[in-house]
Amino acid sequence: MLRAIILDFNGVILNDEPLHFRAMHDALAELGIALSRDEYWGKYLPLDDVNCVKAICDDKGVRLIPSQRRSLLIRKAGLYRGLLQGHYPLFPGAAQFVRRMAESFPLALASGARREEIENALLAAGLNSCFSVIVAAEDFKHGKPHPESFLLALSRLNSSLNGKSSPIHPEESLVVEDSMGGVVGARAAGMMCMAVTNSYPREKLHAANLIVASLQDVDADCLRRLFEERP
Description:
It is a single chain. By secondary structure, the chain is an alpha/beta fold. Helix content is 45%, strand content 10%. It has helices at residues 17-29, 37-44, 49-60, 66-84, 94-102, 115-125, 148-160, 180-188, 220-228; strands at residues 4-7, 107-110, 133-135, 173-177, 192-196, 210-212. The chain has a six-stranded parallel beta sheet with strand order 3-2-1-4-5-6, sandwiched between helices. Helix 8 links the parallel strand 4 (173-177) and strand 5 (192-196). 39% of the residues are buried.
């Protein structure tokens, strides 16, 4: 039985992955580190900024001292804010999907984005009251495809219930993701996963239990049936 939904943020609700790439690309370029679009989408997109920078530098054999790494992360965050210009582009149907699901299930976010970025976007979109729990980059150590963020989100959801119902188990939870790493992390957490093809084509997301082109036409009954019909 479906009892809770955990959503990724960037690439599922907020259509800003191209802005994150541009900001990371430009911040790295200032240090003479090249990052292509294919590299970013192929390997680094699911990672939070700290792990993204670490992975890129490891792969390119670049060693940054702590002060350089801190400066790079601050610079990237500033470039991202500048690219947003106070505008938060949502995917078509994403806000409506969140509001519909919040009427039936407790919702959590599990994202590699910074908490400030998430909260600002949710407030601007009028979605902040829909989520019982937000797990952001500051809250966990191991990024996707590790399952830590999803399991932490579920743990905090259960805490928010205050004993009003029995604990929600991973197999009663649905993750909504847009990346291969996110899908792998959700499945590793023992959760069902619905992937939306906002960032990658369907064939890249084959490990998900359900793949959709958009959240616009997904309703609660469709998701309940997914759990009822699984082997």
